[in-house]
Amino acid sequence: MNCDAFFAVKHDLLDGRLSADEADDAREHAERCEACGSDLAELERLQRDLRESASEPLPPTVHIRALRALLVAAERSVSPPAIMTVPEVAAYLRVSEPAVRAALVAIPHFTVAGETRVRREGLERWIEREELRPADLGLTGPVLTLVTSETAPRALAV
Q1: How far apart are CA 125 and CA 107, in angstroms?
Q2: Orientation of helix 3-15 relative to helix 34-52, angle to 10°
Q3: Is 11 exposed, middle or buried (0-12, 13-18, 19+ CB in 10 A)?
């Protein structure tokens, strides 16, 4: 399962509407993926708080946490964080984590305490450079053509 698939089923997972195999796949992904695991933990905590306070009025802190969870989820769906983990980069690019790790040769990144991090700005600049690269020719950079007096049209020959 990838992050997009997890995002689509996480509420069904919490509500118990997934088959045992689907639930196992979703929980396994959440254990491997830091971003999805954090999202699931926040939703589970919110669900637990709501269940515990069902017979009494909700304290203001629950409302604030619920609003915060909604804002965090909305922010994640709109734009990735300024500093991303490899799983977050994979989700952003919609590729596998091994594909991202292989591309780290070209993608600007840094490490903190042995963990790879990618700045969103650097990743977006890399994407722009990749879009400009003539991929259909299999070239790795800008294409320059040398025009000589033999190859230039007569009117342009020097």
Answers
A1: 9
A2: 20
A3: exposed
What is residue 63's three-state secondary structure? helix
CA distance 79 to 110: 20
Q: Report the alpha-carbon distance of residue 7 to residue 94 in Å, rounded.
A: 13
The residue among 13, 44, 43, 7 whose CA lies nearest residue 27 is 13
pLDDT at residue number 103: 93
Lookup: tokens for 124: 């977006």
The pLDDT of residue 1 is 84
The residue ranges of DSSP E strands in 95-148, in sequence order, are 110-112, 115-119
Which pair of structure tokens corresponds to residue 102?
């292989």
Alpha-carbon gap, residue 57 to 53, rounded angstroms: 7
Distance CA 47, CA 35 (A): 18
Q: Which residues in the chain come in under a pLDDT of 50?
A: 143-144, 156-158
With residues binned 3-state (H G I as helix, E B as strand, rest as coil), the percentages for the chain, rounded to 5, are 60, 5, 35
| Length of the chain as a residue count | 158
Work out whether strand 83-84 and strand 115-119 pair parallel, antiparallel, or are unpaired: antiparallel
